[in-house]
Specification:
A hairpin with a 5-residue loop joins strand 4 (about 60-65) and strand 5 (about 70). The radius of gyration is 32 Å and the shape is rod-shaped. The chain contains one helix and 13 strands; from the N terminus they run αβββββββββββββ. It has about 170 residues and is mainly β.
């Protein structure tokens, strides 16, 4: 009986030793997105980033490189992008012996170039003119045009590049 107790103690000790030697870590997977799901906008483009990392412990270290010479070590980050260009935002998470990284491209769109032409520039009142937008979007699309005719009247239109306007005012 004494030998079987001693053998049982050795088995229990071996089990504890093996269990203590095996450290199981969750798979570290880095992920993040913008809070609104958009990855582009007009300057100044203000973005909040939502960290979606899984498998990290409470001791994990977060390092954001926001692509605009700004870094952060918070769980979530935010940035303001001014220059009209592409930025690479990178989140690196270190947890124990594991390190994982993810990058995301953020775009600050170029401003549109505004230009228009008229079918005639002189005439008698009432003076009817057709305006044609020759504007270019540069990045993205032009969804609507806002016209200010200089006589106190304005109009917002979408889906067309031309608009007619009749003015009753005489300009000198």
């Amino acid at each position: 009986m004494h030998n079987s107790c001693l053998a049982m103690k050795n088995i229990i000790f071996i089990i504890f030793f093996v269990a203590d030697a095996l450290t199981v870590s969750a798979q570290l997977t880095v992920d993040f997105t913008t809070s609104d799901g958009k990855i582009g906008g007009c300057s100044p483009y203000i973005v909040s980033f939502k960290n979606l990392t899984t498998g990290a412990s409470a001791n994990a270290i977060y390092k954001w490189d926001l692509g605009n010479n700004i870094t952060s070590q918070f769980l979530n980050a935010a940035a303001t992008f001014i220059e009209e260009k592409e930025y690479t935002v990178t989140l690196t998470v270190t947890d124990g012996g594991q390190t994982a990284t993810k990058s995301l491209q953020i775009s600050v769109y170029k401003k549109p170039t505004v230009d228009f032409s008229v079918d005639k520039s002189k005439g008698c009142t009432p003076f009817n003119v057709t305006f044609t937008s020759n504007s270019t979007a540069n990045d993205g699309n032009i969804r609507s045009l806002f016209w200010d005719f200089g006589d106190g009247s304005t109009k917002s239109v979408s889906g067309t590049d031309t608009i007619s306007h009749t003015t009753q005012q005489r300009k000198t």
